[in-house]
# Entry
Amino acid sequence: MKVPFSWLKEYVDIDISAEELQEKLFSCGFEVEELIDLGAEVRGVVVGEILSCEKVEGTHLVTCQVNCGQYGNPIQIVTGAPNVYEGMHTPAALDGSVLPGGVKITAKPLKGIPSCGMMCSGEELGLNDDLYPGAEVYGLMDLPKDTVPGTDIREVVGMNDYIFDISVTANRPDCQSILGIAREVAAVLGKELKMPATDYTVSDYMFPGLDITVEAPDLCPRYLGHGVRNITVEESPAWMRRNLALCGLRGISNVVDITNYVLLEIGQPMHAFDMDQLQDKRIIVRRAKSGEKIQTLDEKEFTLTPENLVICDGSRPVALAGIMGGLNSEITEKTTQLLFEAAKFARDNVRRTSRALGQSSDSSARFEKGISEYTTELGMARALHLIQELGCGEITSSAFDCSAGAPREGKRFTASLSRINGILGIEVPAEDVLRILKNLNFDVVRDGDTLTVTAPRYREDIEVGEPDLAEEVIREYGYEHVTPTFLKAAMVTSGGKNPAQLRQDKVKRIMCAEGYSEIITLSFYADADLDALRIPQDAPERNVLRIRNPISANLAIMRPLLAPSMLNIVTENLKKGNNEGRVFELSNVYLPRETGEMPDERLHLGFAAFGDEEDFFTVKGSLEALGQAFGLRFTVERAQDVPYLHPGIAAYLLCEGERIGVFGKLANEVTAELKLHKDSKANHKIFLGEIDYAKMMGHAAASFRYAPVSAFPPVIRDLALTVSEETACGDLMNEIARACPRVSDVELFDIYRGEQVGAGKKSMAFKIRFEPDDKPLTPDDVERFVKKILGNLKFKLGAEIR
Amino acid sequence: MEERIKALREQMEKRISQIDSKDKLGAFWQDFLGKKGSIADLMKGLGTVAKEARPAMGKVINDFKVEAEEKYRALSGQMDQMELAERNRSEQVDITLPGKKRPLGNLHPLTVVRNEMIGVFAGMGFEVFEGPEIEDDDHNFTRLNVPKDHPSRDMQDTFYLDGDLLLRTQTSGGQIRVMDMQKPPIKVLVPGRVFRSDSDATHSPMFQQMEGLVVDRNITLCDLQGMLDKFVQQIFDANVKTRLRPSYFPFTEPSVEVDVSCFECGGKGCSLCKHTGWIEVLGGGVVHPKVLENCGIDSSVYSGIAFGIGIERITMLKYGINNIGLMFENDLRFLKQFKD
# Structure
């Protein structure tokens, strides 16, 4: 919120600099996001008095001798401005001066005539008529004759001023105004607050038949209306226009300016209806009818629903409550009588309507944050006072006050001094607590440890109890008084991650050791991401949780699978020229449950490997390592029905017979749609997989006991077997292991195809490790084992020893 | 006899000087020390020597034998060494050839920092609790003392699913779940994903927060600062300190923003701290008694402090990352830089 320093000074005698005030505001909870020095862009410009003017023949130029006080008397400056005259006081930018926009002025001849600077228009100084009357005159600024030559121009035109751009937290809507900030400034400086005048006198006149009804008091707990007549619509005075301009508003007319002024000064959004446009002289505050239409001041039309609150006259909506007035009843130059509205509207309703219609305003911004009824009363009184002060209308006796009955006094409660200090952890002296609360306009009576407190009416944020008072006290007393203590009174507790959390860390460590880098991707994506993986429309994965208000259509569903996220990251990396890589993510997928139940958030381990060096078996090897780390033995089963994986190069991963995941090469159909360079091999070697983490860990033992190690060495035997081409390696290995309990490991070390084994056949060579028990293995033992193995293999798989 | 020995010695010296291979060394053994070698011959010739001179002559021959054997051993040792040296030479490799590729993956920077943060608080006795990412209105707002008409419930901040469900906007909801299950003393961290409808250089619609909660008797604002001092000192630099300033969160009162003195410039002012000497790192406060009461904890006996830290924020500060989007792009050239 923008707060001009000069305007603030109308309410508080501030005797510190803008920078010092910025610090003070910061310390009590009001961060100044920007301190704007109005004159920062103007340097070296002073008041000049034109002593003589001499026309330069054959040009439009005039050579002037200018009295610039201590900077030179006279200084010769040439100007082309048509309105120059002898005796004029005007801004003179001296040699080396700077104007807004970084324009540098130096002494240089014009048409051969030496000129030691430039005389300026208001526009060149960044001024307009609102900031300084007469600034928009065509040509040089004509300053008053009582300005002293050589005076810094910033002082003369009010540019020695600052704007505080203050961020106000959501709990302090009472500070959405100059007055609100002034109250805080007065409190933090310990100064008196000078309240703006709110007195006015009313005439006996009453508008006949004028009536106001609030039909929706839940959405409009307070509605004040007051009639004014004999209006003269004209320009508002310079001081008002200047203050509005400093806050970024242009002057429009006295009546409109008053409503804007009260909005900025008091924080109360005001509206003025042209009384003659109000049909039946009626105001009805009600919910809109379905399909009812209104055209707002900015000429936009909206179709409404009963969720929207409208202000209506006898027959139609004349304002969108709290957001904007209707075009049909706006104040014009012809307005002679009006009705002022000051109201409190329910903040969530204003917010919802504003969002739903996409229409907002300075008023709606304030209503959304919350307005107190104190502010509503003060705002109306101030607006009427300003009508009187500006002498632009007659305040009638037609005054209306519709109230839902909220109490007209601040919250009153008792609090304990020691509990306030107990929250803070320091001892704030009682007299400081009392002083601070009084400075903040709390009414406080102390009885020993007990304070009886009445909060100011505008502080609707204050809740009964000590915490709010503790915050008020410490933000004024100063956070530097908080002395850090390291959980002085707290009991010792045991901390750290639990076994399940540590296990997740271990999974991540193993994946890293296998060369996989962890990625973190967004939890949501689009239906299109499932389309890209060829997930059928009737697949269970298509039953997803949808975000009702996604930030974009690309991020509209909670992901049921990690695979699309994995693939997106792989594709992005390939596009960036990272032509190999391994990535994994251990994150939730989200699956809907029955209505009324919380959705299923399931941890999945997703992974992908891509690049020339990768194949199905590099990935499988990593998964085997992962299993090993948790004492799990994974088996595989051909997966031909996973839509995004190659039907011949994909497997389900099983643990103790349960499917726990799937992995394999990305289906050619999916790869083809990735729009990657076709000539790069890396782009065709993408492997993806996904494991249900809980299912996997369900098979891991929570703890283990050591198994005794035989005192005798193992025996290793190599066996080369000839089998038909269709025989799966896994079957051979399983059979070998099953044939003999002494087999502790079977490792494939060679596959041979060729003449020596014949067409349609292959030879596979295995290293078999036999583990002894409490006796050493004899050559006879091993012979017996091998015979048994070969017998079984021949019988079950037709394998022959080679 | 002595003449023969002398001649043999000369012969031996000559042979030795010519030996440059194991073969020649072997021949030398055969010729001098073998069963049919010269020294054996000498021994056989001992019979021709006068009986009384035999022992003396025997000793001379034996000394000569010992001498020859020593020479042989020395040469043999030399030969072995030469051979080893030759073998070593031939086996030498170009040590500047690249190592065998064994790719090592990295943890994501957010995980690195998250673990580091958990480590700091674990040392203070904090447990780790992970709540659901999809929450209901009750846990995300109502029981955290966010009034029904509060602006933070606005559609523009919160992602809504069907019915009462929403994506949690903060990990503070975890506080409620913990306090429902556990009674004081409580020290718990709730790290995890949170979601807000916001996206620019410093905002992502999904990011990670870490909530911290302490509930016990006589816990104060001073404890919050003391604890966070320790945290920032371990995460950033042993010399940094914190500064509290007023703020607003519905679930804490008083609420504070916590700034850390700039670890880049030591508080003198630099571009990182925007020349203020301070960097905003987290928010916190004294737990609102209503939140305690909402979880069945007697606020007249117990008090609490809570804080919420943006893990992305800390990560970006630690590593000088200026765009939050980089965290979720997952470009391997970015990821590979982070070592834990």
Remarks:
- The CA atoms of residues 82 and 88 of chain B lie 10 Å apart.
- Chain B has a mean pLDDT of 91.
- DSSP finds twelve helices and nine strands in chain B.
